[in-house]
Design goal:
By secondary structure, this protein is of the alpha+beta class. 32% of the residues lie in helices and 28% in strands.
Length: 137
């Protein structure tokens, strides 16, 4: 579904096109009083919460900036351009992974949805998502 916005669950699943990014990522947090500076520059995602800023960072960058190591996550981009008003994509994707005991943290952005799964299960998650796409076609 290149350059076309998918609106229905069927269209979104048929165009899923999951892509596993290189490297691993950490979820880290900055207390509200801490200066973000270099951490924000290195982050691929950020969300402000009452407790502080949550950042998603390449693991190497996070460790270099002094953040504690945590569970390494891999990043899967769903290449389908889904409508922000589309219903069911997150549930279908997270549900398929949950059925196989794979944790999934979903970040929805303007163009694509981004999944963060445990590094050791990333290849399996990718296979499951590709199967989900094939089933929808």
């Amino acid at each position: 579904m290149t350059n076309q916005i998918a609106h229905t669950l069927g269209e979104m699943l048929a165009g899923l096109s999951p892509n596993l990014s290189e490297g691993s990522f950490l979820f880290v947090t900055l207390p509200t009083s801490q200066e973000a500076g270099d951490a924000i520059d290195a982050a691929i995602g950020c969300f402000r919460e009452d407790e502080g800023q949550s950042l998603i960072m390449p693991r190497e960058a996070a460790l270099a900036l002094g953040f504690a190591d945590g569970p390494p996550m891999r990043h899967i981009v769903l290449r389908v351009h889904s409508s922000l008003e589309g219903v069911g994509l997150t549930a279908a994707v997270a549900g398929r992974l949950a059925d196989h005991g794979i944790a999934c943290n979903v970040v929805a952005a303007y163009h694509h949805d981004h999944l963060f799964v445990p590094a050791e299960r990333a290849e399996e998650a990718l296979r499951l998502l590709n199967a989900l796409q094939r089933e929808a076609r």
